[in-house]
């Protein structure tokens, strides 16, 4: 978790959005490509899956504690690597700002219908 002002400023350079700057802390969720499970028959690296599971659990727990979070994946990874001095096998995958949510009007999201995303065999 990053909460030092100078390090937060460096992370803000990787994702320069005003709302992101308001978060008092950012959890940087990284994957370790050296230790991630690899599927035996083709070697598929499951780092992204591990990161997604961890991120989801963190966001659920934060919500349970009354905290707000937001997955941020559209950032410049090289700036995060530099800010945190990460080695080459560690990939920053998600920036997760965390704090007390503000009362704000959230605009409606345009979502694809579920039928465009999910297919059931035989239906």
Task: Map the helices and strands.
Blueprint lengths: L4 H10 L3 H4 L3 E8 L14 H18 L3 E2 L7 H8 L5 E10 L14 H4 L6
Antiparallel strand pairs: 1-3, 2-3
Helix pairs in contact: 1-4
Family: Belongs to the nitroreductase family.
GO molecular function: oxidoreductase activity
Protein name: Nitroreductase
What is the CATH C-level name?
A: Alpha Beta
Major sheet: size, sense and barrel closure?
3 strands, antiparallel
Structural class: alpha+beta
Order of strands, main sheet, comes to 1-3-2
The figure for the number of domains is 1
Instruction: Compute the CA-based radius of gyration.
Output: 17 Å
What integer is the average pLDDT? 93
Instruction: Give the CA-CA distance, first to last residue.
Output: 45 Å
CATH architecture: 3-Layer(aba) Sandwich
Report the total helices.
5
Order of helices and strands: HHEHEHEH
The global form is globular
Number of DSSP E strands: 3
CATH fold descriptor:
NADH Oxidase
Segments where pLDDT lies below 50 for 5+ residues? none
CATH superfamily: NADH Oxidase
Percentage of residues in helical conformation: 25-40%
How much strand?
A: 15-25%
Protein name: Nitroreductase
GO molecular function: oxidoreductase activity
Cofactor: FMN
Organism: Marinilabilia salmonicolor
